[in-house]
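Notebook entry, structure prediction.
Reason for the run: the old model in the group folder had no record of what sequence produced it. Starting over properly, with the input documented here first.
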Amino acid sequence: MHRFLVLFCFYFFISCSSQKQSDLILTDVSIVDIENGEIILNQLVAISGDKILATDDASNLGNYHSERIIGLDGKFVMPGLWDNHIHFRGGEELVESNKNLLPLLLAFGITTVRDGGGDITPAIHEWNDQIQKSKLDGPRIFTPGPKLDGSRPAWEGSISVSTKEEALRALDSLESINADFVKIYDGNLTKEAFYQIIEEAGSRGLKTTGHMPLSADLMEAVKLGLDGTEHLYYALKETSSIADSLTEAGAGYGMVTPLMNTYDHDLALESYQKLGETGFYVTPTLHVGKTLAELLITDHSEDSLLNYISPKIIETYQRRLNSAKRGGDSYTQTRSLWVTSFSNMVKPMYDSGINILAGSDSGPFNSFTYPGLSLHKELELLVNAGLTPQEALITSVINGPKFFGLENQYGSIEPYKMADLLILEQNPLEDITNTSSIYNVVADGKWYSENALNDLMNSIKNN
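New structure, fully documented this time:
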């Protein structure tokens, strides 16, 4: 009997030691291969810490060991979503209100966000640190810190840049806080200062994106090293033969509608091709444009997500509402034209090789553009604009990390990549709205059950 027990323990030890040890195993899953547009059936995903340890056929489950094995009955597993344009802002008074947006994002399967810059950078760094230490529930945040703008910045907390010396000091400041990239704004930034920021940032290896003074030339900025733009106004300048005359006349944003009315398809394709060859990035932000265009014709008072937005943030919505009311029917008509025109630009840009990024532009001040839900709506609008569901997903989970050169860490479900996963009831490659059929979420290797996601939402619900 004693000999039998010894042999049993020996073989048990050998068996366990030959198994791959992991913290969590998801088995009987359908892996969504977004890059190749395929579904890989009957798989398992083994997770160790915050990384994927292995993927394998579910029949090989015996080769792995974990104290926690979850069978998912064929549910679809894809990389966590990236929202590549979001805002945390509003000053010290709104820090806690912004912080309460983090659980909302995670509950909608968004595991990484790219912040658009603002005035609460120290708080964002603190949140990121807590998230990485599993002391706070929320997505990973890439932030540029303060925006760079002209002598009269449009947003609080921005750094003024009017000269080369000020550009150098501003970039020194961003480097000192380990900014993830440089966000440029166009409150009254001159084209000369714009070019100087781009050139100097490039020499330091810093990525640049943002708004562009409409007095500037996009192609010149790209030659100097501009990596991307937020919104579609700036690429629009490259599609009209009257753009130069409007620029010389100092038309500013007054040129947008004339540019749309003189859109030249051949000229547009030529410019898109040039931008695509450089690896340029563009974040269309279609959903926020549609939401703002419809402010005067949509009743948002019964929106269910209003219950999860701080009253202090809801107060900031009044700024856009007042602007729409002042403009009246003209505002609605003009904005609606913009929505249609910008949507028509997306597919030819994507096909020309431009890296389209999915971004919601949600956060304080952008009325009724709810963090979390808005990224799903953006994906839907990208499909309505002509992208396939696969292409729309690429704009979020593949192009997002690609902007930062992090393709080896994110974008697919493979060994050694981050264990940020979205588990869906339905196939997102068949219908993009299936990204909303969320069953569970894994962020930094941490499993969030349906109850846990509900608890996250309830933790921020208004009383």
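Summary: Residues 1-16 have pLDDT under 50 and may be disordered.
The old model has been moved to the deprecated folder.
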